[in-house]
Amino acid sequence: MSTTDPAGTPADPTDGADPATPAANDAGEPTESAAHTGPGEPTESTEPAGDTAALPVTWDDVLAAEARIKGSVARTPSAHSHTLSQILGCHVVVKFENLQFTAAYKERGALNKLLQLSEAERRAGVIAMSAGNHGQAVAYHAHRLGIDATIVMPSNTPFVKVQRTRELGARVVLAGEGLEGSLAEVQRLIESEGRVWVHPFDDPQVIAGQATCALELLTDFPDLDTLVIPIGGGGLMSGMSIAARHLAPDIELIGVQVERYQTMAAHFHGRREPETGGATLAEGIAAPWPGTLTGRILKALADDIVVVTEDDIEAGINLLLEIEKVVVEGAGAAGIAALIAHRERFAGKRVGVVLTGGNIDPRLLASVIMRGLVRNGRLTRLHIDLPDVPGALAAVTQLLGQAGANIVEIHHQRLFVDVSAKAAHVELTIETLDHHHVDRVVTALREAGYEVFVGTFTNHANGA
After folding, report:
1. Res. 274 pLDDT band, cuts 50 70 90
2. What is the Rg, in whole angstroms, of the alpha carbon atoms belonging to the chain?
3. Cβ distance 60 to 67 under 8 Å?
């Protein structure tokens, strides 16, 4: 059933249909009824735990979605990673949703929604609000189906996602600092242009499409103990939970949110919703409010929602790049980040993890890689004061070579540091094997009589 009327305006949640869009006031902000019953007060689920029949999306909806999108969305591979399993202490099975045409799972829900639009709704065109992946999915499949699409994206969306969305045939409108800011522009365009809203997560047809991800994963690996699924608004986790509870009723379902946007975790655990905001590497799951439908589904079916830090996300990206030779975005690495941050919880279990997307800005990826090298002791900055005489630097570089360190960069500083006029401050960036190798290099320098300060990830020269 369509969640919009033929003119494309959001359906009235009081008409007996499940609301596919959060209600909004005149300013475009979600009203209290859209996400919670009062400031910080989560809505209570009335569904019995584990009972999918009472929910707005059923197993039959999932099967219908699978048949509907088959052949137009990739059936992505799943594989057991021996090395990740060894490193993380559990049996890790990875599903590669980053191998979709638009490099994210969002195609599943977007296409299932678009294929159920009426002719009048198709003629009206569609609009989506997205930090990137949902927008690309809607843009691609709408263009393929001959439906005009407008995508509203936060103004700080990574360039690679904005450019790709335009290349896929959609009009892109940049508005607001996050999804909350984009919502007002969505409401304005719906009213002025009569477009149909394809919600990024809070729509039964979108949720049913996302559920097909679990159907494939559990068909390939039916003996998994746990699924670990990233959560923004909760569309993927809700859909996968519905499918998983049918296929493997006793499976453990764990959601993952990033600490700066943990609204669904607060909703699930009955806590007041925390303040959200700030830059995050996982912008794909930076939803400023929990979904209404998705919140109900997760309350009924999920076992827990855990939180990870930005450092955990970076570590997940680097681990997948080094071990699996796979590029993922921040949100796509959230599942692996949870295995890193909550290692004891998953120890010895057979865990399925979805790599939800691979659309990361190349410049950002380069920064994450270099920061990872620093954290792992493979790039280190040394600070040494030397007499400003010929041969002093050569003696240091010779010692570094003998200790097996490769010099990447050298900076001399004579003017803007507190050293003798007859001395120079030298900063050397060196490449090493690991932190133990750094310790051996520093020991060799100190035994030769040099005073050495080792730069840390956050400190500047001389500890300032």
Report:
1. confident
2. 25
3. no
